[in-house]
Design goal:
The chain is elongated. The protein has ten helices and no strands. The chain starts with a helix and ends with a helix. By secondary structure, it is mostly helical. It has two domains: 1-49, Arc Repressor Mutant, subunit A (Orthogonal Bundle); 51-182, Tetracycline Repressor, domain 2 (Orthogonal Bundle). It has helices at 2-23, 30-37, 41-47, 51-74, 80-97, 99-107, 109-115, 118-133, 139-157, 166-182.
């Protein structure tokens, strides 16, 4: 039973991201999510009381994934290998979450600000940049590290219209990001 419940929860999250991307967060209702899934609003309500709860669950996935990268990096000696591995792991995280979800985060900044996620995500992003440049952490090196992370983020959120597979976008973004990082 837990497997079915978990599957339904994931389907709700997936469909919500599709609709949020298509229609916008503010213009999407739980009713529309239920209709797209072919279930009652009560079935959606069983898993998520509000659409904000859906966004919270998705944001927790991202924050948890970044926390895992941070914890790994903090237990690994600093240097260029660690920096490249952070890029690889960050890219895998974003590409694993899916383009609809990442595009939603980029396109719905007011919703994130209103729900209080923006500050913690910005802090985590800055932490990754700092970890990529330790032990020196020169401002220009941090700038390049953050730009490299942004290259990965943009490959998911802004390049979905190109006739490339997710794997091709991920590989290209990782190469570009490594090139940016190498310039620091």
């Amino acid at each position: 039973m837990d497997g079915r419940r978990s599957d339904t929860r994931e389907r709700i999250r997936s469909v919500a991201m599709e609709l949020f991307s298509e229609r916008g967060y503010e213009r999407t209702s739980l009713r529309e999510i239920a209709d797209r899934l072919g279930v009652t609003k009560a079935a959606v309500y069983y898993h998520f009381r509000t659409k904000e709860d859906i966004v919270v669950s998705l944001s927790e996935d991202l924050r948890r994934g970044i926390d895992e990268i941070v914890n790994w990096a903090q237990s690994t000696p600093p240097g260029s290998e660690r920096a490249r591995e952070i890029l690889t792991r960050y890219g895998a995280l974003l590409h694993g979450l899916g383009s609809d979800m990442v595009r939603f985060w980029h396109e719905n900044q007011p919703a994130f600000r209103d729900l209080g996620f923006g500050t913690s995500l910005r802090y985590q992003f800055r932490t990754l940049g700092d970890l990529m440049t330790e032990p020196e952490s020169e401002p220009l090196a941090i700038f390049h590290a953050r730009q490299a992370l942004l290259a990965i983020s943009w490959s998911v959120s802004m390049m979905g219209d190109l006739p490339l597979t997710d794997e091709q976008r991920y590989a290209a973004a990782t190469r570009i990001a490594a090139g940016i990082l190498a310039k620091s």
